[in-house]
Amino acid sequence: MKINSAEFVISNQEVKKCPTNKLPEYAFIGRSNVGKSSLINMLTDRKNLAKTSGRPGKTQLINHFIINKNWYLVDLPGYGYARVSKSSKAKFQKFITNYFEKRQQLVSAFVLVDVRHDPQPIDTEFMEYLGENGIPFGIIFTKADKLKPNALERNVENYKNALLEGIWEEVPPYFVTSASNKTGRDELLAYIDGINQT
Ligand code: GTP
Ligand code: MG
Predict the structure, then answer these.
(1) What's this model's pTM, rounded to 2 decimal places?
(2) In the chain, what are the domains?
């Protein structure tokens, strides 16, 4: 898919203030600092469309971007970021779960995981939460540029095996990506395009 336009639309904490038209949307979720905002910039080929930072906790709101005027990418805050106060953390989680449970336009979530790490409960539990709520999702392995090919392959296999040993009967669609060198961009855009065409 060619990206002809990519524009910021709105940021907020309330699902009822999200865009009201029925265009399909895809949401990026994962731990703070995993690379959600960087991935959105990589996919859209825009350097600063979504704000990124080396410090976790950069993205704090639900951010809608409209792509080619006919679908949305949604950048979400990271989960598992301990440096916010407890009450703001609870609120955080609440508006994220509200988004996932109420947003009718959501076609698929993408759960981002850093490909360097073993499966973490916070991520696999979030996938289980999506499964329990009937929300389709794919897995995006990020920061592939940080590993040599052998280690990359080993970690991806390890992750898939862990899912199959857990509650999953099959491995969800998954993508190996790097925002630094655009690995996985074509595959991910083709996947989204395929869904949008149906
Ligand atoms: P929050 O908004 O805080 O939840 O973080 P985020 O998941 O949006 O992460 P962000 O895109 O801001 O990236 C976090 C850090 O990781 C930044 O320093 C990025 O430059 C770096 N980063 C993101 N993706 C990649 C990647 O593919 N490769 C490398 N080497 N660094 C990356
Ligand atoms: Mg972010």
Answers:
(1) 0.95
(2) 6-197 (3.40.50.300)
